[in-house]
UniProtKB/TrEMBL annotation:
Residues 101-141 have a biased composition (Basic and acidic residues). Residues 1-54 form the PSI domain. Residues 89-141 are annotated as: Disordered. SMART domains: PSI. This is PTTG protein. It is a single-pass type I membrane protein. PANTHER family: PITUITARY TUMOR-TRANSFORMING GENE 1 PROTEIN-INTERACTING PROTEIN, PROTEIN CBG20567. It is found in: Membrane. Keywords: Glycoprotein, Membrane, Signal, Transmembrane, Transmembrane helix. GO terms for cellular component: cytoplasm; membrane; nucleus. The lineage of its organism: Eukaryota, Metazoa, Chordata, Craniata, Vertebrata. One of its GO terms (biological process) is protein import into nucleus. The chain crosses the membrane at residues 59-84.
Length: 141
C-alpha cells in the first residue's frame, strides 16, 4: 500500500512504481491508473512526482511537448525537402529548368560538351578526308 509512505520521503514512496508522490502535501498515494494525469484534487501537477523525484508532471508535459513539436517540425521539413527534390528532378528530366539562369557548373559542363562535340566533328572530317585520299590513291572513287 502506498499510503504507508506518507510523510516519509519521495524516494521511499517511488520505490513502488504504482505510487505517486505529492511534494506539496508530502503524501504518497496510488497512481490513478484510469487517468493519464493525476486530477488536481489529488495533487497539482507542479507537485506530483512519479517514477523519479526530480521531475514533476508539469515539467514532464512541457518537455514532452517541446520534444514532440520539434520532431513534428523536423518531420515536416524533411517531407518538404524530399517533395521539392522529387519535383525538381521531374522538372529537370522533362527539360524545364528551375531557374532561368544556369549556375556556373551548368555553364562549365555545357562549354565542355560543346568543345567535345567540335573536336569530334574535326576528327570525323579528318578521317573522312583520309579515307577519300586512300580511295583516290587506289582508284575506288
Amino acid at each position: 500500500d502506498c499510503r504507508q509512505y506518507t510523510n516519509r520521503s519521495c524516494e521511499e514512496c517511488l520505490k513502488n512504481v504504482t505510487c505517486l508522490w505529492c511534494a506539496s502535501s508530502r503524501r504518497c498515494m496510488e497512481y490513478p491508473v484510469r487517468r493519464i494525469l493525476p486530477p488536481a484534487d489529488l495533487c497539482e501537477l507542479s507537485s506530483a512526482r512519479w517514477g523519479v523525484c526530480w521531475v514533476n508532471f508539469e515539467a514532464l508535459i512541457i518537455a514532452m511537448s517541446v520534444v514532440g513539436g520539434a520532431l513534428l517540425i523536423m518531420l515536416g521539413v524533411c517531407c518538404c525537402c524530399c517533395c521539392c527534390k522529387k519535383k525538381s528532378k521531374k522538372q529537370v528530366s522533362r527539360g524545364a529548368f528551375l531557374s532561368t539562369r544556369p549556375d556556373k557548373d551548368d555553364e562549365r559542363a555545357a562549354r565542355e560538351r560543346e568543345k567535345r562535340r567540335v573536336r569530334q566533328e574535326e576528327r570525323r572530317a579528318e578521317m573522312k578526308s583520309r579515307h577519300d585520299e586512300i580511295r583516290r590513291k587506289y582508284g575506288t572513287v
